[in-house]
Amino acid sequence: MMKKTLKVIGGVLVAGGLAAASSAHAADLPSANLKVIGPWNNSTTWKLNIEPFWNNEVPELSKGKITADLTSMTEMGLKGPEIFRLIKIGVADMGSTVTGYASGEVPELDGLDLSGVALTIGDMRKVADAYIPALEKIMLGRVGVRPIVFWPTVQQSIWCAVPINGLADMKGKKVRVFATTQADFMEAVGASPVTMAFSEVVPALQRKVIDCAVTGTLSGNLAKWPEVATHLYPIALGWSMWVMSANERAWQRQPAAVKDFLLKAHQDPLAKRAWSIADEGTNQGTWCSTGNSKCTWGKEKRVTRYNRTEVPVTAADKKKLADLVQAVALPKFASRCGAACTAQWNDTVGKAMGMIAKAN
User: Fold this and answer.
1) Which residue of 219, 242, 248, 280 is most buried, as measured by CB atoms within 10 A?
2) Residues 283, 71, 248, 273: is their CA dihedral positive or negative?
3) Fold designation for 4-152+241-282
4) pLDDT band for position 8 (50/70/90)?
């Protein structure tokens, strides 16, 4: 029987995953053991999704036929951008990373999560539905890895270890970012973007190497950022989209029944739960980190209650963000990605969101 904690952690019932997997005839599945690289072990994605998925749900759903040797990026000393290369050369059968980390190899990936474009989880669903089919073809054809599923974490916001009152106070601050589009935004408001791995942020804030850092409202809480960060500014800078990819040769070697099972399980429960967490967890991360009485998440979701300062997102700051999307984010993305990529984005995400990207 499925462990009760797995039903609670995701915020959604696992029963849907059991129903989906049943069509794969779990009892008749061939046996398979996969080497899988997961996220950092102090991240939201690891704690609430990847770790329970591979270590508990996949064996349960497959009746023990499919198992995984799961290793976190923390254990491997990885930063994230190298995942596609490691998967392609067969270091692991499957692996996950933030799409923005891999945009150096696939510039089009930036277009999935441009800062300030998708302000709500509903917007992010529109973007994903419009753009992911194109990304799947690009990743398989150009990079040589097969994307299995994409999913969001929670709204990406700004955590600071120094007092701030709003967007204007970002000027002159050193801010950790993990995606090119976030760096574009920080430069536009007068901050100095600093690229570093998630696991390096807390000591960097402690040593004052950086003043602020971008991550999810819930992700920061789970990683204990409020122990060093004093202010949380929940302005919407994206959703930290993740992708699980497979080594194409290893994937093709798997029996059809195994591939069918894995595809369905990655959609439900993994992706289904992730979208649910992204929706509810965005507010809970803010509320639980800033002493708001609306906080209802606790130990069952590995959330800690803090009393840090929530910086209000004013109407003026929201307008400034919207202006920067048009003046900075879209033109810089178009310049980096090229004419064909920009046309594709405009025909997919642009149509869905009522925006047009054009290089300056």
Assistant:
1) 219
2) negative
3) D-Maltodextrin-Binding Protein; domain 2 (3.40.190)
4) very low
